[in-house]
Amino acid sequence: MAPKFHVLVIGGGIGGFACAVGLARKGHAVTVLERSASLQTWGGGLLISSNALRVIESYGLLGRFQEVAEKWERHVIFRYDGGVLDVLSNAANEKVFGYEMLNVRRQVYQRVLYEGAVEQGVKVRFGCRVEKIDDSEKGPSVMLSTGETLLADLIVGADGIKSTTRPFILGGRDVKLQPNSTCYQCTIPASLMLSSPLTAPLINERAIHSWWGPNTHWICGRKSNGQSYDAAFFIHPTASSPLPASHVSASNSHDPGKGKDNDRRGDVREVIDGVQTHGYEERVQAFAKMIPHENCTLWKVAQLPDLPTWVSESGRIVLLGDAAHAMSPHLGQGAAMTIEDGGVLSECLARASSLDDIPRAVKVYEEIQKGRTEKVKRAAGVSGVWKTMADGPEQRKRDEGFRKRMESGEKYEFWRASGHLAWIYGWDSKLEVGKELDRVFPVGKGIGQRARI
Ligand SMILES: Cc1cc2nc3c(=O)[nH]c(=O)nc-3n(C[C@H](O)[C@H](O)[C@H](O)COP(=O)(O)OP(=O)(O)OC[C@H]3O[C@@H](n4cnc5c(N)ncnc54)[C@H](O)[C@@H]3O)c2cc1C
C-alpha cells in the first residue's frame, strides 16, 4: 500500500524515534534525521511510568522494554541524615495502573525505540544536521548542513531543548531557557560498592533509593542486573549559592558539533563537596568517594517556558518532546511526555485523509498535549522544591505528613503527591484522543484531496 504522508522527523532521541514508530505503524513514510553519527551510548537511568507504557504497548514494544528494564521492588526515600521518609511499592503501581514502573538506561530506551522504528520501515539518517527550515507554497522543507534540501508533507521538530525547529515556529525568535539545577549522573562499579559494608546492602537490594536534603537530592539504584550502582545527584541553586556560570547554559542533549556543549564531564570533587557541605549520611559520603572520575556526567537541567504555539502558521511543522516542553526531571516525566506526544500525534494524523487535513489534525494534537504537558511541567517544579526543602517548619510539616502515611500500607507515590499523580500515570492517551478526535475530526470527514508523497 502506498504511504499516506511523507513525514520528516528532526532528531533521533527518545521522542523522535518513538513518534516515528507511531507514525510508521499508521502507514506514513517516515524519515528521521539525526545530527549525531550514531546512537547515544551514555546516560543514566530513566523511569517509564504507565502513561508512557500504554503507548509503548500499543506499539508492540512493551515486552522488549520489560526484558531490558532493571527490576525494582521498592523505592525508599531517605532524609539526607538517613531517616526513612517513605517507601513506595512497584507492586502498588502495577495494582493501580496495570504496569510496573520500568527503570531503563537512557541509551537502552533510545535503542529499543530505534530498533522498533527500523522494523516499521522508518528510514534513519545519522550524521544529518538540519540547519534551516522553510515553509513555502510547495510545502515544508529542511536544509541540511551539507546543503541538501528535503521536502515533506509534515515536519516534526523532535530536536530537543535547544531545538532548531522552535525558533522557526516562533517567527524567528526563540524563548529563553530557564535553568533549574545541575545534575551529576554517576556510575559506580559493583566491585567498589561491594567492598564496603556501608554500601554493599544498597547495591544488593532491588530498589531505587532517594535521599532528600537541603537544596540537593539524590536518586540512585542498581543497574545492569547489579553490575553497577547509578547515582544522580542534583544541586539546586539558592540566593546565596547560585548555579556556577559554567552550569547555567542548559544543555540536556548531546551536540557532537559544538565544542563547548560537548564537554559533559562532571567533576566528582563537586559531588563530594556537595554531600559534605549538606551533611549527608555516611552511606552517601562513602559511595560519593567511590565515583570514578570518568563515570561522572554533567547535566545542566533547564526547562522551557510555556510556548505561545507548537505549530507553524501553515500547520505543517510541529514541535514534540523537549523541543516543545522540556521540564525538570523531578517527577520523571520528560521522556514519558514525549512518548505520549508521539502517540497522540500519530492518532491525530491518522484521521487526516488529505494534505489539507494535516493542519487540523496537528492542531488537535497541540490542543490535547500542550496544556497537559505544561501542567506536568509545573508539577515537576513543585516536586523539585518539595524534595530539596531546607530544615525548618515546612520541612517538619512535610516529614510529619510522611510519618503518618508510613502506616498506611503499600503506595505508588510519595505523600505530597497523594491522590495527585493518578492524572499523570492513569492517562490513556489513545482513549482521550479518540474522544477529542470524534468530536473535532469525525472519521470520514476529511477534505479528500490526494496526499503528496
Ligand atoms: C538528569 C535527567 C533525568 C531524567 N529522568 C527522566 C525520567 O526518569 N523519566 C522521564 O520520562 N524523563 C526523564 N528525563 C527527561 C528526558 O531525558 C527528556 O525529556 C527526553 O530525553 C527528551 O527527549 P527528546 O527526544 O525530546 O529530546 P532529546 O533527547 O534531546 O533528543 C533530541 C535529538 O535531536 C537531535 N538534534 C538536535 N538538533 C538537531 C538538528 N538540528 N538536526 C538533527 N538532529 C538534531 C539531538 O542530537 C538529539 O538526538 C530526565 C532528564 C534529565 C536531564
Automatic annotation (TrEMBL):
Top-rank lineage group of the source organism: Eukaryota
Domain FAD-binding: 5-167, 313-366
Biased composition (Basic and acidic residues): 255-267
Region (Disordered): 244-267
Protein's UniProt keywords contain Oxidoreductase: yes
Ranges of biased composition (kind: Polar residues): 244-254
Annotated InterPro entries: FAD-bd, FAD-dep_Monooxygenase_BioMet, FAD/NAD-bd_sf
Signal sequence extent: none
Protein name: FAD/NAD(P)-binding domain-containing protein
Organism field: Hyaloscypha bicolor E
